[in-house]
Queue: 3 jobs
Job 1
Amino acid sequence: MVPVLEGPARRPAGLIGAVDVSPSGLLFCAQTGMTHSVGKQAPMTEAARTKGQIEAEAAAAVVRFHREQQGRGPADARAHLVANLLVVRCTGILTPIEAHLAVSEDGQRLVRSARQELRSINHAEIEDVLSRIVGSRVLRSYGDVDAPASELIEVYVLEDEPERRLARG
């Protein structure tokens, strides 16, 4: 659907990113400062969703989750469905203080330990969110942080293979 221009508007509170869509169907572009109506779109059925759409939704959910938990989300997140696994790679994950700590080996261990402890406390929440997105229960998950690379890898083991139910594309 081609957006219909409604005119300039100030950035509504709570929108994050260069382009965002509100629940009312308004799209805000931070670059132009314009709000556009994208109209009401029928919700996609699971069969109509593509692998790429699910991977993009999963990556966006992980960014939101880390933003809520750390006060800052990763600079980039990519998710990949592979058989019964969802693999998520996040880069640019460190907060400024973590980046400062990561210059020494002791600091790297501290950052990794703190991130792993937070993950052990909060993993059920993100697993629930991702289960709804991929349409398959998460059985367990694993994660590891590389502080010098400012990178996080998470692997979610799914109950089945969501790709078998998806539209191609």
Job 2
Amino acid sequence: MPAAPAPSSAGAVRPLLLLALVLALPEAVLLGADHGLWGSRIWRPLAWQYGGFWAGLWRGWQPNYAAQPWVMILSYSLLHAGPGHLIGNLAGLWAVGGALRQGAGRILAVWAAGVVGGGLAFGALATSPAPMIGASGAVFGLVGAWWWADTARPGPLPRRALRAAGLGLLLVAANLVMFAASAAGVAWETHLGGFAAGAALAALLPVRAAGSAAGSAAGSASAAAPEKDEAGEAERQQRQ
């Protein structure tokens, strides 16, 4: 399949800014409520309760509303544990999204694939009773697309295989470090599902990676995983 032409720099930045705005707005509203500027301090736990991904809803728990088991496949990615969690994911979005030579349509498609793939994997594999929130699954979707584009880049097979293996090891190490450092836990299932979905979509689309892969693998991987999809700190909701 012929490679797509590289978009202009402005065209490549616009979808990243749009995604950053979409992620920042909910956190800004909830942060203001946390500090009593508007609304109520219960807004954040209510947002997690109604919008977080509760794996138990796929195992017989009673939903708060009929569509919740399906809405949460998307809504979890719009919620974060706080400003630090959000900033980490925005850094990953900017670092990895900027490494893909794509227009708005493909960037948004890969992002959506990471969100859905991460949610499906968490629902299928997770056993935690706590909600999963955050956009890290989508960020790992971008990483997966970048990995596929870099691996498919023309060049000697041993060198490409070595780069692919190196990125894989960096991602595993990043998840282990986050798991050890986090009291709330790390949704590795979401990271895995997002990565796989992003790579799969990149295999179907003419996705191109920018720059020399040899020098950018470590930077992209480390920037893409500074934060994690956290199991929310809200108390477990009692369900029949």
Job 3
Amino acid sequence: MIQVTHCLQSWKIEQPTLQGARLAGLYRMLGAEYKQTSFITMDSDCPTDEPNRLWGGQVKDMFDQQKKMTEFCYRQDQRFVPEMKEILKPKEQGRTAFKEDDVILITGGTRGIGEQIAKRVVSQGVKRLVIMGGREPLPDQSLWAEALTREEESQRVEKIRHLKALNDQGVQVYYDHTALTDSEGLNLMVNKIHQQMGPITGVFHCAGIKGENPSFLKKTIQEIQAVCEQK
């Protein structure tokens, strides 16, 4: 399966487009998950009024090449492929990446990658955190200590313990469970954050679910919609 996009990649062009960006991500994921099937993304700068040049030239050239690549980029009919290069680790260590008045928002910040990012940014100087943890309401911050002593171990308790640990380090933590698809609710949340903490200066989008069937081909339409809803 092949997807052809127009100027999606920034390579050798001044202004890339977002045409086909969502499907490009899907093709890359499927190609990595299902090795027995070939999924290819190809980006071209060929104008749409030159179909013969695109299909008879660049696409044909792509199929004629012998390397088993899954991503190509054509600029002025020249083929390019991505490659990884080793870079030297910067010598400068311990530099603070954030200022104390920064307000960092992390979706999915109560567990997994989001939880680790929250710990990381706090270690780098962040003192104001907005944590979005799905749609699960949690008790008021004043009741976190009591909840940890009275409630049995659960994912909910793990989330509270994580938030309280951040708060105990002197971090101002704002927890919210507004759905990411609720535009009106998100606007109200942002306005409230601006009033209480200041303008949001950084966002880490870590929200996501895998559903009962991790395999893409085994997911139902409803499960796919639930996964995509977070993004």
